[in-house]
Design a protein that fits this description.
130 residues, alpha+beta, PH-domain like, 6-stranded antiparallel β-sheet, 2 helices
């Protein structure tokens, strides 16, 4: 079932991916938890909604082998994570900076597990755009 992704400890019931459009008409994605908190943001923008959705689905399908990790945030005194796509471009970033490296690392690992679950699901749970 698409809304119930992952295995034990990675349940993502209610997790959904939403597509947003910017003021220039370009699209980006964000992954949102069932409580409304944004888990991750797409780092790229796309000229069409379908290209945006396709890019997220490729990320899900290849999540196991994609490089990424935690780094110190340049704009704050915290930690952020990012993940590169199959082409080497940064495709996903943390939605916020974390005070502790270990907390950021845990959030990154949870995101990776969610992607693996979404990649194994029948379909990505697309939600309404905000």
């Amino acid at each position: 079932m698409a809304g119930d992704i992952g295995g034990a400890g990675t349940r993502g019931a209610g997790t959904r991916c939403q597509v947003d459009i910017n003021e220039d008409g370009w699209f980006s994605w964000r992954l949102t938890a069932n409580n409304g908190r944004v888990i991750a943001l797409g780092a790229q923008i796309y000229p069409a909604e379908e290209k945006c959705k396709s890019a997220f689905e490729v990320l899900c399908a290849h999540a196991e082998g994609l490089p990424g990790g935690v780094r110190h945030a340049a704009e704050s005194n915290g930690w952020v994570w990012r993940m590169r796509g199959p082409d080497g471009q940064v495709e996903a970033v943390s939605a916020r900076a974390y005070e502790r490296h270990s907390t950021c690392q845990s959030a990154y690992e949870r995101f990776r597990m969610l992607l693996l679950g979404l990649g194994a699901a029948e379909a990505v749970p697309w939600g309404d755009s905000a």
